[in-house]
Every structure is written in C-alpha cells, then in structure tokens.
Design a protein that fits this description.
CATH class: Alpha Beta
Helix content: 25-40%
Shape: globular
Order of helices and strands: EEEHHEEHEHEHEH
Radius of gyration: 15 Å
Oligomer: single chain
Number of strands: 8
Largest sheet: 8 strands, parallel
Number of helices: 6
Distance between the termini: 30 Å
Strand order of the largest sheet: 5-4-3-2-1-6-7-8
C-alpha cells in the first residue's frame, strides 16, 4: 500500500481536484490545512497539491520534463509505459480518467468519510483545453465518463463523494448509491471553509 510511507496524506476530509471549468474561480489555497488535497493532471502547472494523479503518457512525459516528481508526490497507475521517478504506483481496474482513478484510490486506500470534489464536472469543458497535451474539448472525447464515476461509487469503500459545483450533471444513479452528494459552492463555503 503506497500510503504507508506518507501517513500525513491520510486525512478526513480529502479534496479531489479535477480540472473542469466549474472550479476556475475558486482559490484552491483556501483548502490548505483542512485536509489532503489531491489534484489531477495539469493542475500542477498552477497549484501544488499534496498529491498529484496522472495517467496519460503525454502528461507523464510532461511531468518528467518538468522534474515534478522529484520534489512532489505523484501517483500513477502501475504498469504505465512512462515512468515518473519516485512516483507511488497503484493498480486498479475500470477507470478512464485521473478523476475516476482518484476516486477509487481515495475510497479504497485512504478511506475518509468525506471527499469533496471540485472541478469533477461530468460535462464538457476542461480548464486546460487547447494547451500542451490537451485537445480542444477534452471531456467530449470521453464516452461514458459518467459511467466510470458511477462504477467507482459502486465499488468498495464507504467514502461519501461530495460534488461541489454550480450544477449536478452526474447520473441519477450516483445519488442512489448512498455515496454521492451534490452541494453548491455557497454550501461548501458554509460547511467546510467557514467552519474550519
């Protein structure tokens, strides 16, 4: 289990930061000290999370070129053809995005009661669309991304994933799992930021 060496990453709550456009106006620095911050892919370009997840070969090569894994903690799926030095490796099945991989890792390895998700939109638009290693309208190319999110919710673990967003685009079945909740940014401010 890769987190034995990083027990400081085992916190409750956990924050999973995707790169959907819904999070563009939220200052992620405000999450520091409240819980472990796990980011996806190119987030590292503008913000250093406690842990960065990357799964695509192009992004892994970019991390190597930036030497990001030398000083910062990165986790990648076991068996990737591009290796990131010092990266933690974990093997799981049925994921098609870093966000889905992160959900599975959080619920199965970290096991917090709550994981707040920002930028995990499940609708088109990525903050890095059109930049290096990102196609235009990245999420449009993922057929069935919502079905993978649903599979992660239906898998092992009891973590409740709380989608912080302006709208809830996740499938109705997500709510039926008992492990998914939707809240607005205002509710997030009241529930997490202002009470800490």
């Amino acid at each position: 289990m890769p987190f034995r060496e990083r027990s400081d990453l085992i916190t409750d709550p956990v924050f999973l930061i995707g790169n959907g456009t819904s999070r563009k106006d939220f200052d992620l620095e405000r999450l520091r000290g409240i819980g472990t911050i796990i980011g996806c892919n190119a987030l590292y370009r503008e913000f250093t999370p406690d842990l960065l997840i990357a799964i695509d070969a192009k992004l892994l090569r970019e991390l190597n070129e930036a030497k990001y894994g030398e000083e910062n903690t990165v986790i990648i799926p076991r068996g990737r053809t591009v290796d990131v030095p010092k990266a933690l490796n974990w093997k799981t099945e049925r994921f098609n995005t870093s966000g889905c991989f992160g959900m599975k890792m959080i619920s199965q390895l970290m096991q917090p009661k709550k994981c707040y998700m920002l930028g995990m939109d499940s609708y088109p638009g990525n903050l890095y669309d059109g930049t290096e290693n990102y196609a235009i309208n990245t999420l449009v190319n993922f057929s069935g991304v919502s079905s993978y999110y649903l599979k992660a919710l239906q898998g092992p673990g009891d973590t409740v994933f709380i989608n912080v967003n302006a709208k809830d685009a996740w499938p109705a079945e997500a709510h039926q799992t008992g492990k998914y909740k939707y809240i607005t940014y205002k509710e997030f401010e009241d529930e997490v930021i202002c009470t800490e």
